[in-house]
Specification:
Order of helices and strands: HHHHH
Oligomer: single chain
Radius of gyration: 25 Å
Shape: rod-shaped
Strand content: under 5%
Helix content: over 70%
Length: 176
């Protein structure tokens, strides 16, 4: 065995930046997850302790359901990010071992496979965040529906999100 430590460090050094990027991504995901969970708990507490009007109560139920979904999505995205970081660290370690034992071909394939899977999980986590972003967009839009002046300012009929009459009236207005 011929261990060329200088070569191992040259190869591993730049790859370590990928690990740092993965951990930054995990931090980003965790921050979004923590914010969604905190807001989810706050809105449930508001629902429990407030005397809400009909449309506000209905809209708050809708928001609670969507915050729950956001929390579930961000939990999955954070899981993808963590497994990705583990795989990329494993890639770094197995790549260093593969340099030390170049005759063991399976180490090269193992290292390449873990790198590919780790990067694919970063993409999966990002796609999940995009789905969560769509929920945020919907929540921002529907938050105004129980305030008539604000609902009208965005071209919507005020009322409960789940009220079929609100949608039917809005459709009729759009045809005129």
């Amino acid at each position: 065995m011929n261990l060329d430590l200088a070569n191992v460090l040259k190869v591993i050094g730049p790859a370590a930046s990928l690990i740092f990027a993965a951990w930054i991504f995990v931090g980003f995901l965790q921050t979004r997850y923590d914010a969604a969970v905190e807001r989810y708990r706050d809105i449930i507490e508001t629902y429990r302790t407030s005397d809400l009007s009909g449309s506000r109560k209905s809209n708050m139920i809708d928001q609670i359901v969507h915050y729950k979904r956001r929390c579930e999505l961000m939990s999955r995205a954070t899981g993808c990010g963590l497994v990705s970081a583990i795989l990329l660290i494993f890639t770094l370690i197995s790549g260093g071992i593969a340099l030390s034992f170049p005759e063991v071909e399976s180490l090269k394939f193992l290292s390449a496979g873990s790198a590919l899977l780790g990067l694919l999980l970063v993409i999966a986590g990002t796609i999940i965040v995009m789905f969560e972003g769509r929920i945020i967009y919907r929540q921002i839009h529907t938050e105004l529906l129980d305030l008539p002046d604000l609902a009208e300012s965005i071209g919507e009929e005020a009322g409960a999100v789940t009220d079929p009459k609100r949608h039917a009236h809005n459709t009729e207005r759009g045809r005129s």
